Amino acid sequence: MLAADAVRVVAFAGLAAMIVAGRASLPLIIVVAVVETAAGTLFGTTEHAVLRGIVPAEQLPDAVARNEARGYGVSLVGPPLGGLLFGIAHTLPFVANVFSYLGSMIGVALIRRPMRPAREATPEKYGAALAEGVRFVAGEPFLRAVLFIAAPLNFAINGVIFTIVVSLQRHGTAPAVIGLTETVIGVGGLIGAFAAPMMQRRWRPATLTRLICLVATALLLLSAVLMTGVAAAVPIAVTLFLAPACNAALFGRLAATTPDRLQGRVLSVIFLAAGSASAAAPLLAGLLTTVWSGTATMLIFAAAVAVSAVVATVSHGLRQPAPELTTTRQAP
Fold it and tell me: Where is the chain membrane-spanning (predicted)?
């Protein structure tokens, strides 16, 4: 985690320096963006993997929910703050990034509790470690269910947000209104993150997962009808209201189910599948919106969520009783 933050500090400090020197170019910006995303993925996967080592097992779902709230909060505050800083001076947003990652490094360095068990005497090679993670996911009914639910669900939600923005642009909607639309969607997720602990205590992970899949399918169909206006964002905001509770419940149980030494490997497999599908969604949304229409594109994404709903409904893995939550924290 420290190494990932250090890479991002260097990348953004370099970009800020090139802007000051008047030598910033689009290829350089793309390289920095790729480096930042790669380091962020490494940091995020590790963060999820070590959570079990520093949080009592019975508090894992609440911890995941709080992290979700942090993410949605930052997604709401970050863009306007970045725009404000960019208006003052073009280098300021990137200098602010440097200080934010330095702050993250200080926070990580202040953690005194061991984040994982001791390493094996002879660490496995990368290929063997990845294969072990894939085998473990394939052999656990609960993890298989999560994999086949998360991939189409992430794909669809990421795609519909992009579709709404593109459709509003094509209808000549003012940029401020488009920004308001994205804010409405983000607020739904933020409120849902704060409500997640209460929802987790009321419903089991399987119930929450089926609920979000079934409700999301219906809401995406409604959003397709409302496609030409800002109202199309409201059903998506309601969908994201349910998402943090579902994520917290599933990842809390995943952390409790998976042995410590496999946490990172299993999460890498899950994130790779879900993230790959999600990354492809904007491209597909743009192509479909150009060839057909925003409404038709929304219907296709609704069909993808319906696939998740079917898996969540028929999966025996989700219905298996959760294992006993036992803490693995070590003495500092």
Answer: 12-35, 84-111, 145-168, 174-196, 208-226, 232-254, 266-285, 291-314
CATH number for the segment(s) 127-319: 1.20.1250.20
> Hey, CA dihedral for 137, 140, 146, 151, is it positive or negative?
positive
DSSP 111: -
Give the other-Cβ count within 10 Å of 268's Cβ: 22
pLDDT at 150: 86
C-beta atoms surrounding 288 within 10 Å:
20
End-to-end CA distance of the chain: 19
pTM greater than 0.85: no
Helical residues (DSSP H) of 55-91, grouped into ranges: 60-88
Q: Which two tokens stand for residue 176?
A: 């401020």
CA 97 – CA 231 distance, rounded (Å): 34
Sequence-distant (≥ 6) Cβ neighbours of residue 249 within 8 angstroms: 61, 200, 203, 204, 205, 208, 209
Distance CA 25, CA 115 (A): 40
Provide the token pair at 18: 């090139």
The CA distance from 233 to 115, in Å, is: 40
Which residues, other chains included, contact 206 with Cβ-Cβ below 8 Å and sequence gap of 6+?
312, 318, 319
| Cβ-based burial of 243 (10 A; exposed 0-12, middle 13-18, buried ≥19) | buried
- Cβ atoms 208, 252 nearer than 8 A: no
Q: What is the DSSP string of 124-174?
A: PPHHHHHHHHHHHHHH-HHHHHHHHHHHHHHHHHHHHHHHHHHHHHHTT--
278, 300, 305 from 155: Cα distances, Å: 4, 11, 9
The residue ranges of every structural domain in the chain are: 2-109, 127-319
pLDDT digits (tens, 9 = 90+) for 217-273: 999 999 988 876 778 889 999 998 988 888 777 777 787 778 877 888 888 888 888
For the CA atoms of the chain, what is the radius of gyration? Answer: 21
Nearest to 152 by CA among 281, 289, 291: 281
| CA-closest candidate to residue 295, choices 229, 227, 213 | 227
